[in-house]
Design a protein that fits this description.
Blueprint: H1 12-27, E1 40-45, H2 51-62, E2 66-70, H3 84-92, E3 97-102, H4 107-114, E4 119-124, H5 130-144, E5 150-155, H6 162-171, E6 177-182, H7 191-199, E7 204-208, H8 211-214, E8 220-223, H9 234-240, E9 259-261, H10 282-301
Parallel strand pairs: 1-2, 1-3, 3-4, 5-6, 5-8, 6-7, 8-9
The structure holds phosphoric acid mono(formamide)ester (CP).
């Protein structure tokens, strides 16, 4: 039995295989419509979510399976003090696989140690969000036709952004990928990510505050939200939240085949005037999120067509 807590648990071959199955699902959806018949997914979300929870649920339904759901800590016995370990043991009696989001870093790992079914980390605090990373990789692959030899810019909150840390970790495995890290000084990528991932893998990277200046270099621009919920004081959040806003004028010298990604939710960092630009990919990314989760559920349940 296998869980997925951190993107680093997947080998590059396994990531490529998940992407290949996802591409086949896109081309032949009917082939997969009964593969999870008789199986149940439990979604246990102790932090707000629209895309991750509903894409997991939609993915399971499209595979012919069923879903049971806990959509907040308040509506479950966690509110009475039940531990993550006991909740995981309990859900194992009801479901074949669990997707869990929790504000505490490491909670899905604890759940996986006590569950008797696979646990998927659907986001733990500022730590990891491996299925968003798989979503991002599938989006980049479908849009660019490759995962190597490109320049990818990350903009916004690179300090607390778990999607940024996981995607950097995944992209650092592919050759010829250059990283451009665009953030205010206070929200720079943590030193451990630079040391343990970028420098360790010999990746080329640069840090800058000059958003407009680097846009023409980019093949992928990964925008992120400054996350109010990760700040200790409101004053710092208000000072930093609108530092980088992508508006049409900033794309004047961008490559015609640039692709703009965002894990969403968006607050103010991408103007709605960009939404109809063919380079904007963030709503396609939402669709790819459902497809890659179908592929992952099948893999962790050991199902093939
Ligand atoms: N991208 C993402 O995790 O979105 P939700 O918070 O809506 O699930």
């Amino acid at each position: 039995m296998r869980s997925l807590i951190d993107i680093q648990e997947l080998s590059t071959d396994e990531i490529n295989e998940l992407i290949a199955v996802a591409s086949d699902i896109i081309d032949n959806p009917k082939k997969y419509s009964e593969v999870c018949h008789g199986k149940k997914l439990a979604t246990m979300f102790f932090e707000p979510s629209t895309r991750t929870r509903l894409s997991f649920e939609s993915a399971m339904y499209e595979l012919g399976g069923n879903v049971i759901s806990v959509s907040s800590a308040e509506s479950s016995s966690a509110a009475k003090g039940e531990s993550v370990a006991d909740t995981a043991r309990t859900l194992s009696c009801y479901a074949d696989i669990i997707a869990m989001r929790h504000p505490k870093e490491g909670a899905p790992l604890v759940a996986s140690m006590h569950a008797s079914v696979p646990v998927i980390n659907a986001g733990d605090g500022g730590h990891n969000h491996p299925t968003q990373t798989l979503t991002d990789l599938l989006t980049i692959f479908r849009e660019k036709g490759r995962l190597d030899n490109m320049t990818i810019g990350f903009c916004g909150d690179l300090k607390f952004g778990r999607t940024v840390h996981s995607l950097i970790s995944a992209m650092s495995r592919y050759s010829g990928v250059k990283f451009v890290l665009i953030s205010p000084e206070e929200l720079k990528l943590p030193s451990y990510v630079k040391r343990d991932i970028l420098r360790k893998n010999g990746c080329e990277y640069k840090q800058t505050t000059d958003f407009e200046g680097v846009i023409p270099e980019l093949d992928i621009l990964y925008m992120t939200r400054v996350q109010r919920e990760r700040f200790f004081n409101e004053e710092d959040y208000l000072r930093l939240k609108d530092r980088y806003i992508l508006t049409p004028d900033k794309l004047e010298n961008a490559k015609p085949d640039l692709r703009i990604l965002h894990p969403l939710p968006r607050v103010n960092e991408i103007s709605v005037a960009i939404d109809n630009d063919p380079r904007a990919c963030y709503f396609k990314q939402v669709y790819y999120g459902k497809i890659i989760r179908m592929s992952l559920i099948m893999k962790l349940l050991g199902l093939e067509v």
